[in-house]
Each structure stands twice: as structure tokens, then as C-alpha cells.
Design brief:
Gyrase A, domain 2, alpha+beta, Ribosome-recycling factor, two-stranded antiparallel ribbon, Ribosome_recyc_fac, four-stranded antiparallel sheet, protein biosynthesis, elongated, 187 residues, Topoisomerase I, Chain A, domain 4, RRF_sf
Length: 187
């Protein structure tokens, strides 16, 4: 292999792993009938005149599999936090107990579970497309390097390395999808 022409495989790997992290974040936002602290992360509360994430105005806990509690630190913000939860589109009716807001998570019906598995599959497909785009960028780098004097053996080596990385990352996307779909369908 020539020393002056190399492909930045670490950058490609970092970008592919970024697609997986994005997928995991999207999966965490899917409501599976099981309580999760991440389901309230996007909720913004109008605190002291500016929108503030709900986890910065109170402590978010998951004491039971079907219950999320938020212990609001400032009593003046309890009603604003409750209003933000109602308007968030989560479809959960908050219950107040002093400064604690309780969010009971309802059971999902079979049709809603199937819909969520389809949404999860769409998220996974978006992640696969992102990984393939990174692969294409890597292959373009290899083509440019070949036109700059990279040997055919080096070209084959780097193409194999990029393809191997792509296959590995897509396999982990598929694993994450299977795990999420199993979690959604679990009654």
C-alpha cells in the first residue's frame, strides 16, 4: 500500500455510528406502552419567560413500568409543566400530587402496536439510507484516490474495508430494529 494515499475509514465509521445513534434516539421517542424518561425529553416548559426542557425544571423518574413521575422543583412551575405535557401530543393525561406530576402510560392495543412497528421500520430504513450514503462517499473518495495514482490492489483493499464496515453497521441497524419491534409487540 502506498503511504501518501489513504482513505479516512475512521471518519466513515464515525458518520455511520452517528446514523445508529440517531436511530436509537428516534426509537427512544416511540411510545411502546412502557414508561421511559426519554419520552418526556422533547417537552418544553415556559419557565421564567423562556422555553426550558422539562428535565431542567424537575426530576424525571420511572418508578413503575407504566408510570413516569416528574418532581417539579419550583411550585410556581407545576401548572405550566402540566400544561406543557397536555399540549405535547403524548396523549397522556397528567395527574397532580402536590409538586409531583404523574403520567400513567396506557396499554397499547394490537393495531397501535402494528403501526408503531411500521414506524420503527421506517426509522431503520432512514438509518440504512444514511449509512449507504456514507458508503457512497467513501467509494467516491476511493475513486478520486485511484485517479490520483492509487494502485488497483489498494483500491480493492479500501473498497473491501468500506463494504465490510457498511455491512457491519447495517447488521447492527437490523438488530436494533428487531429488538425494538419485539419490545413494541410484547404485551
Amino acid at each position: 500500500m502506498s503511504d501518501e494515499i489513504e482513505i479516512d475509514i475512521d471518519d466513515l465509521e464515525r458518520r455511520m455510528k452517528g446514523a445508529i445513534e440517531s436511530l436509537r434516539h428516534e426509537f427512544a421517542s416511540l411510545r411502546t406502552g412502557r414508561a421511559s424518561a426519554s419520552m418526556v425529553e422533547p417537552i418544553m416548559v415556559d419557565a421564567y419567560g423562556s422555553p426550558t426542557p422539562i428535565n431542567q425544571v424537575g426530576t424525571v423518574n420511572v418508578p413503575e413500568p407504566r408510570l413516569v413521575t416528574i418532581n417539579i422543583w419550583d411550585k410556581a412551575l407545576v401548572s405550566k409543566a402540566e400544561k406543557a405535557i397536555r399540549e405535547s401530543g403524548l396523549g397522556i393525561n397528567p395527574q397532580l400530587n402536590g409538586t409531583i406530576i404523574m403520567l400513567p402510560i396506557p396499554e397499547l392495543n394490537e393495531e397501535r402496536r402494528r403501526d408503531l412497528t411500521r414506524v420503527a421500520a421506517q426509522y431503520a430504513e432512514h438509518a440504512r439510507v444514511a449509512v449507504r450514503n456514507v458508503r457512497r462517499d467513501g467509494m467516491d473518495q476511493i475513486k478520486k484516490a485511484k485517479s490520483s495514482g492509487m494502485s488497483e490492489d489498494d483500491q480493492k483493499f479500501w473498497e473491501g474495508a468500506v463494504q465490510e464496515l457498511t455491512d457491519k453497521v447495517i447488521a447492527s441497524v437490523d438488530q436494533a430494529l428487531e429488538a425494538k419491534q419485539a419490545e413494541i409487540m410484547q404485551v
